[in-house]
Design goal:
The chain has about 250 residues and is of the alpha/beta class. The protein has one domain: NAD(P)-binding Rossmann-like Domain (Rossmann fold), CATH 3.40.50. It has a 7-stranded parallel β-sheet, sandwiched between helices. α7 links the parallel β6 and β7. α1 packs parallel to α2 and α5 packs parallel to α6. The relative contact order is 0.13.
Length: about 250
Amino acid sequence: MKRVLIIGATSAIATACARLWAAEGSDFFLVARQADKLEITAADLKGRGAQKVVGHSMDATDIAAYPQMLALCLQALGQIDVALIAHGTLPDQKACEQDVDLAMQAFAINGTSVIALLTVLARQFETQRCGTLAVISSVAGDRGRPSNYLYGAAKAAVTTFSEGLQARLFKVGVHVLTIKPGFVDTPMTRGLNLPAALVAQPAQVAERIVHGITHKVPSLYAPGFWALIMLVIRAIPQPLFKRLNL
């Protein structure tokens, strides 16, 4: 049995992970913006074997709300064995290019708020000296592409921050996992013109994440073939790369 904190708990990938942990009889503290969706998710997990499920409504960009959220989580669970940060949005790159406020809002949701949560949770895990802190970044953070470089910049910041945090917390027995999904069939990506062969289902990605947490993998691509794809993309010389429409 695990005691699991999930932020962005109603997202497709987070829900798929939670279902796997629920089958093990885990306890949950679920955080998301919409209380009605939290109730639906909680009921689903209880039906799948979860022992305790507590929901908490919070906007992940409201940094001032983090201490209360963490205090309530510890009150409910006692200790956190796994924390998964899974919130985020996919911004409209073209719109962000024309509106600086929109661009900064998108960066806050996908970058700044994630780093702030990692900072708060890291102190708790450092005190515990055990557990896993997992964060969903993206393959988009591996190289800036013209189609989504605002989103990619936010995820690159998350990835780099997580790598440094991993080196810090490893010394006190805490595991930090950086997760880099590629294209996943979620509400966030529906309607986009994506190559069908590269689009994974949330359950596939969840299995890889849960396996990575269990085996204390430092970082992973999901599905795994994205490691090769991004190796190729990173290797493209910049004079050629800037001419491509990626």
